[in-house]
TrEMBL record:
<dbReference type="GO" id="GO:0050664">
    <property type="term" value="F:oxidoreductase activity, acting on NAD(P)H, oxygen as acceptor"/>
</dbReference>
<protein>
    <recommendedName>
        <fullName>Ketoreductase domain-containing protein</fullName>
    </recommendedName>
</protein>
<dbReference type="InterPro" id="IPR002347">
    <property type="entry name" value="SDR_fam"/>
</dbReference>
<dbReference type="GO" id="GO:0016616">
    <property type="term" value="F:oxidoreductase activity, acting on the CH-OH group of donors, NAD or NADP as acceptor"/>
</dbReference>
<keyword id="KW-0560">Oxidoreductase</keyword>
<feature type="domain" description="Ketoreductase">
    <location>
        <begin position="13"/>
        <end position="192"/>
    </location>
</feature>
<dbReference type="InterPro" id="IPR020904">
    <property type="entry name" value="Sc_DH/Rdtase_CS"/>
</dbReference>
<comment type="similarity">
    <text>Belongs to the short-chain dehydrogenases/reductases (SDR) family.</text>
</comment>
<dbReference type="Pfam" id="PF00106">
    <property type="entry name" value="adh_short"/>
</dbReference>
<dbReference type="InterPro" id="IPR057326">
    <property type="entry name" value="KR_dom"/>
</dbReference>
<keyword id="KW-0521">NADP</keyword>
<dbReference type="InterPro" id="IPR036291">
    <property type="entry name" value="NAD(P)-bd_dom_sf"/>
</dbReference>
Amino acid sequence: MGKKKDLQLMPTRVFIVTGSSRGIGLATTLALLEAADTVVVGVSRGAAAAAVASHGRYEHVTGSVTDEATQRAAVAAAAAREGTAGRIGGVVFNAGVVQPIARLDGVDVGRLRALLDVNVVSAVGLAQKAAAHAGATARFVFVSSGAAVAPYRGWGAYCASKAALNMVVRVLALELPHVVSVAVRPGVVDTDMQAALRLAENRDAMGQDNLDYFTALHADAKLLSPDLPAKAIARLVLNAPKELSGEFINWNDPRLESL
């Protein structure tokens, strides 16, 4: 009875995870819920994943992360959780898209704009709203990509969006000194996004060599399980120190082992 009472009195840390219904987002949500004092508000276009739908410390917001009403709903749900004093412990900005796969000299500009809205603009919008409720030790963790610093044929839209996201993190570190903002390179992960890259229809834009490379990674079981970067992301949003703010770090950076 005493132990149960102690748990009830324990302050709650609440986190928002976008793209929480699959892949890295779902794995990060599960990793965060392993702690006894955490609550996760997940955001995705579809319903909550079965693995978390009935969890007592999970709340789901259905809607597009690009919709400001969805962003406000997620922040309001997090701030309203009992035991948080209206403060958000952190946000994992995971939602992202890779399409259109196309050469920049032929990409549909409307689709390019839509990608940037998901991968960059929505992250800034949610960060604005969450910052108003950020606790004294709040952390913003942005899921970036190696494509932020390495060009790939056919990925111009995606590469540009992740490079922009990394700069957003660097500027947030200056403008919001009370929040630790970090970008993470998750590695090459076995997700739906990787499956989309391997489609034969991408050959002309990506080149046969790149298509073969990513196809071989999958065939040879060399893609990372989402659980691996997710554990690193969870460590960061729970415990990242101030000195990491503004950095772009690998999921397996040795500095994360002590968090």
